[in-house]
Amino acid sequence: MMAAITVKNLFDGIGGVLPEEKIDNLLKTQTVRVERIVSRGHASPPDFWYDQEEEEWVLLLQGSAGLLFSGREDVVILHPGDSLLIPSHVRHRVEWTDPALDTIWLAVFFRQDEKNDQQITVNRLSAGSG
């Protein structure tokens, strides 16, 4: 007997009013968590910083966002196709997300055995690469 195969679309089930970011768990194991996050003009509260135990790799699928990292003055701007690895305990916050278009993130949280060098790199996929 074959296992059931279910196809889901990351862009489905978003509509309606979003008073807060919409976070959907897509996959969760003991070592990895995958979330779809939908932001519509949302930002971190004033003076709030994420300081996570896990590494976070994020891919922006739609919209745009600005992230601020502790110790840096420049806001890192993400556009569709941009990905970013945020090492554990690197304090960061969402400064803004697009108020006119849903900003859709795919976030993968995981733990590493060896300590990351806490370098933050934005990876941009150019059109036509592949």
Shape: globular
Query: What is the topology, as strand order, of the major beta sheet?
Result: 1-2-8-3-6-9
Structural class: mainly beta
CATH class: Mainly Beta
In CATH, what is the homologous superfamily? Answer: Jelly Rolls
Give keywords.
Jelly Rolls, mainly beta, 9 strands, six-stranded antiparallel beta sheet
Describe the structure.
This protein is mainly beta and 130 residues long. The protein has a single domain (22-123), classed as Jelly Rolls (Sandwich), CATH 2.60.120. It is 0% helix and 39% strand. A hairpin with a 6-residue loop joins strand 4 (65-69) and strand 5 (76-78). It is globular and about 55 Å long.
Secondary-structure blueprint:
Elements: E1 22-28, E2 32-39, E3 55-62, E4 65-69, E5 76-78, E6 83-86, E7 92-97, E8 103-110, E9 122-123
Antiparallel strand pairs: 1-2, 2-8, 3-6, 3-8, 4-5, 4-7, 6-9
Short summary:
The chain is mainly β. Helices cover 0% and strands 39% of the residues.
